[in-house]
Amino acid sequence: MKTTRRRTLPLPLLFTLSLLLFAAGMGVGWSGASAYDQPAPQPLDISEPALAAVTLPPLQPSAAPLDKPSPAPDSWNLMLVNFGHALPDSFSIPDLARLRNGHAVDSRIYPALQAMMDDARTAGLQPLICSSYRSQDTQAQLFEAEVQNWLARGCTQQDAQRQAAMWVARPGTSEHQTGLAVDIVDTSYQILDEGQENTPVQQWLMAHCAEYGFILRYPTDKSEITGVGYEPWHYRYVGVEAAREIMANGLCLEEYLALT
């Protein structure tokens, strides 16, 4: 069931969250780049002017069963991180490629992300990455800020934490900490709410993200499985083969891994 809750926060809290995200990006700095003497990847260019908007239909799920074996679930690109699966103790911050505005991603997914952004712009669209890799400390601060938001609405501490976890993952359980996830919005509509799904950028991404190895991680009808509310802006890299199977069969990552 779709949720109709609009992601609106008090202005002071929005300002605080913006500072936290900016600080996290700056904290990544160039230190996350490759330790080898390789040229640093060029940042994603999100400043090009938009061409005529192109609206494409979303990829329609297929009822056909998976007809080939899936990759091993312990592959780096298929790491499961959710409310029931925290980052393992052995997890270490990946080799990061830095993007514009302090954002960063796992360097292994950079080429695919760059290609997807470039092709979206070629289609006349203006995608904007508004969130990417986050540190443990940043995730903790964001979660606490969301808890305070719910407390201000009159929730008890327990209910506030439960509600907050539906929209901001608890520290150690966020895909953003893996460097494999990005939040992408349409430059013309920079609001994280359900209306994002109707923007030209999201229509294009939902139809084509699998071609680049990405999936819409939190579909509208999978909240009971993922434990996360509908987020038509959160894309996760899983690799082309897995992404095609997941999107074509209307699955979420949890369901896909259960089939392996």
Could you characterize what this model shows?
The protein is an alpha+beta fold. The strands form 2 sheets. Strands 3-4-6-5 form a 4-stranded antiparallel beta sheet. The protein has a two-stranded antiparallel ribbon with strand order 1-2. The radius of gyration is 18 Å and the shape is globular. Helix content is 33%, strand content 11%. A hairpin with a 5-residue loop joins strand 1 and strand 2. The longest helix is centred in the N-terminal third of the chain and has 18 residues, at 11-28. The two termini are 27 Å apart. The protein has a domain at 40-133 and 174-258: Muramoyl-pentapeptide Carboxypeptidase, domain 2, CATH 3.30.1380.10.
Assign the structural class, choosing from mainly alpha, mainly beta, alpha/beta, alpha+beta, or little secondary structure: alpha+beta
Q: What is the share of helical residues?
A: 25-40%
Rg value: 18 Å
Lateral strand order in the biggest sheet: 3-4-6-5
Shape: globular
Number of helices: 8
Largest sheet geometry:
4 strands, antiparallel
Indicate the mean pLDDT.
79
Q: Count of DSSP E strands?
A: 6
Topology order in helix (H) and strand (E) letters: HEEHEHHEHEHEHH
Beta-strand proportion? 5-15%
As for the CATH topology of the domain at 40-133 and 174-258, it is Muramoyl-pentapeptide Carboxypeptidase, domain 2
Low-confidence stretches: 1-71
Q: What is the C-level CATH assignment of the domain at 40-133 and 174-258?
A: Alpha Beta
Termini gap? 27 Å
* CATH architecture call of the domain at 40-133 and 174-258: 2-Layer Sandwich
